[in-house]
Amino acid sequence: MFDAQSKDLERLGRIGRRRALHPRAGADFASNDYLGLAESARLREAVADALARGVPVGSGGSRLLRGNHAEHEALETEAAAFLGSEAALYFSSGFAANATLLATLPQRGDLIVHDALIHASAHEGMRLARAESVGVAHKDAQAVDEAIARWRRAGGRGTAWIAVESLYSMDGDRAPLDDLADVAARHDAVLLIDEAHATGVFGPDGRGLGAGLEGQANVVTLRTCGKALGCEGALVCGPQVVIDHLVNRGRGFIFSTAPSPLMAAAVRASLKILADAPERRTALSQLVRDAEVLLAPLGVRATGSQILPLVLGEDRRTMEVAQALQVRGFDVRGIRPPTVPEGTARLRISLTLNVDRGQVAALAEALREALG
Predict the structure, then answer these.
(1) Rounded CA gap, 290 and 292, in Å?
(2) DSSP summary character for residue 67
(3) Which residues form the catalytic set?
(4) Residue 53 DSSP SS3
């Protein structure tokens, strides 16, 4: 029994790709807690206050049964107002939200055009979708335009859906959102923007790189709450009809236990922090600039974002360097295929307000030694 699973694990071990769980240790250069909110006093106080108000820890059921709570609805109302969308819907995770979006909204006869480096959750949604999908070159708006045009010429009559991330999680680079919005308008297409790694960090009040597009009739955004917001879950923002359709047809929403009402209260507090604590974004921006000066000479790619990759290529070499840094007290993780394309194994250096410039400088010295 389980012979196939055992052989698969052995194969992963031989090629240096077997994964295992490890407790967190060392200076944080691995998490997505970009603004340092996950362990902040303000979120602790918000949770304590919610408990004192009688907000339950668990929801007890799906949202369509008894799991719907006033905290969920308050969060969705406040998030829509803050982010500038007509409506919002709270999911238990970004993966669930992204997969549900793409599995539910595109219909049979539609086309999904996605960036080649889009997240695994989007691929899971497309695998379940009734629409056909096609990948195009990374950050290439013209390739998106041409893919839709070819589909139309071949007889495509449905709706085209353009799926991208605003800030790519493994490369730290940005999608050409304005160009993509033009393509969407030209083809009467819908633009799906995953703002997971941009929310809280970029845009007015941390509202993301696509903040200027939010509220448009053909734009739907996804904003995870477990990264810069320091909490858990995800918000889908868009036209009311989109939200209503997800409530009625989105299996990942309908058949899932509702997120904790206590966590919804925490996310509400996080959104308030984004609005009234811009100094956190300023501090992170300065840390990014400092890190680029210190790390770029070692081959780390300067991206202008909090995600700085060092592509080493070979899987084992990548993990050896990561382990050497971890031994020195720096929590830097190696990323291997299939998370990233073949031949591009890398260190993903993530900058958060859980570290300071001195720790970045120390990391640079440790990395210089680890690279030999």
Answers:
(1) 6
(2) I
(3) 32, 119, 165, 169, 194, 197, 227
(4) coil
